[in-house]
């Protein structure tokens, strides 16, 4: 099973949630309904969904993903 980075800004814990980069598995990106975005100044693409991270993790658990590690600030 591929790894997937899930990320959000602490002040935006209700979304949007970053769910992968331009090299992420397209079937998972489609399953999550993510949109491809590029922020001004970045030379790479990311995928985002409007749901909070908890909802994204619940969806991923239904298809066999599990949390390997996590971190936070504070």
UniProtKB/TrEMBL annotation:
Keyword Nucleotide-binding: no
Compartment(s) of residence: Cytoplasm, Cytosol; Nucleus membrane
Signal peptide: 1-15
Main subcellular location of this protein, as a coarse class: cytoplasm
Claim: Nucleotide-binding is one of the keywords in the record: no
GO (cellular component) term, any one: nuclear membrane
Entry keyword set: Cytoplasm, Membrane, Nucleus, Signal
Family annotation (Pfam families): GFRP
GO terms for MF: GTP cyclohydrolase binding
Any Gene Ontology biological process: negative regulation of biosynthetic process
Family: Belongs to the GFRP family.
Stated name of the protein: GTP cyclohydrolase 1 feedback regulatory protein
Species per Swiss-Prot/TrEMBL record: Salvelinus namaycush
